[in-house]
Structures are given as structure tokens and as C-alpha cells.
Amino acid sequence: MIHKNDLYYLKLALQEAKKAYQKEEVPVGAVLVKNDNIIAKGHNLRITKNNALYHAEIVVIEKACKKLKTWRLDDCILYITLEPCLMCCGAIIQSRIKKIIFGAKDDKGGAILSKYTIFDDKKLNHHPQYLYIEYEECGNILKNFFKEKRKS
């Protein structure tokens, strides 16, 4: 079920994706919220940091853990412009994030609904709630980014 602030936080994640776009990073952004307070915001930094791990979700989880001084983010909601990959889903599970809301599916690498359904795997010890809210701008920024990359 969509709550009144879900689109607001997805729009903030989209602002983060736009920052990534300006850095010529794949434009994915994320925002972590706890009790309706923003704990951390971030975007992809793999190219900037020369580190394959620096997906938007990982950046935000790292910031939040430092800020909250705990690895347990169990009362948090993560808003992401793109469906997380397997690596990021693993980090989400490990950090015990309560819920994930994303605005675009990733048919090539998404691990919640598209390629895999990792959060539904009963063999795992934590099962985050998730919600896909089709937010056209989240998909369009990625399409435009890769269209431009193919031209150059």
C-alpha cells in the first residue's frame, strides 16, 4: 500500500539520481528514512570512487550506519529509483532494513521482482517488505543516460 510520503521520498531519490547523472555515473539514487526522518541520501559512485561496491544503496547504508552508530537499520525504509541488484539486496538483508520502495524495475539485474525474488526466499533469515511504485521518471532518467552513452 502506498503511503502519502512515499512519492515524496522517491522524488528525493530521483534528485540523487540526477546528481549521479551529472557525474556521468549510472543515475540511481536512494534515500533512507526512519520515523519519517531522512537518515541518509546517496547515489551511485562506482566511477567516482573506482569501487564496484558503491551502488546507491550501499552508499546510503554506509552513511546511515555511521550516523546511527549501528549496523541494524530495522526500522528504516529505503527508497530507491531502481530495483536493487543481488549485491544490494544482500546488504539490505544484512542491515535488516524493514522495507524497500523502488520506482523502476531492472529487467536485466533486479533481484526483488525481475530476475530474482530474493526477499521471498524462505531460506533467508530476514524478509524485507517491498513495494514497486512505477514512477516513470525513475525509468526515463536511466533510458536517457544509456541512450546518450550509446551516441558517444
Low-confidence stretches: none
* Beta-strand content bin: 15-25%
Structural class: alpha/beta
How far is it from the N-terminal to the C-terminal residue, by CA?
41 Å
| Helix amount | 25-40%
Number of strands: 5
Radius of gyration: 14 Å
Instruction: Please state how the strands of the largest beta sheet are arranged side by side.
Output: 2-1-3-4-5
Mean pLDDT rating: 96
N-to-C series of helices and strands:
HEEHHEHEEH
Tell the overall outline: globular
Our count of helices gives 5
Write a structural description.
This protein has helices spanning 6-22, 46-49, 56-68, 86-94, 136-151; strands spanning 29-34, 37-43, 76-80, 99-102, 129-132. It has 152 residues and is α/β, with parallel strands linked by helices. Strands 2-1-3-4-5 form a five-stranded mixed sheet. Helix 4 (86-94) links the parallel strand 3 and strand 4 (99-102). Helix 1 packs parallel to helix 5 (136-151). The chain is globular.
Topology:
Layout: H1 6-22, E1 29-34, E2 37-43, H2 46-49, H3 56-68, E3 76-80, H4 86-94, E4 99-102, E5 129-132, H5 136-151
Parallel strand pairs: 3-4, 4-5
Antiparallel strand pairs: 1-2, 1-3
Helix pairs in contact: 1-5
Main attributes?
5 helices; 152 residues; five-stranded mixed sheet; single chain; alpha/beta; 5 strands
Quick summary:
With 152 residues, the chain is α/β, with parallel strands linked by helices.
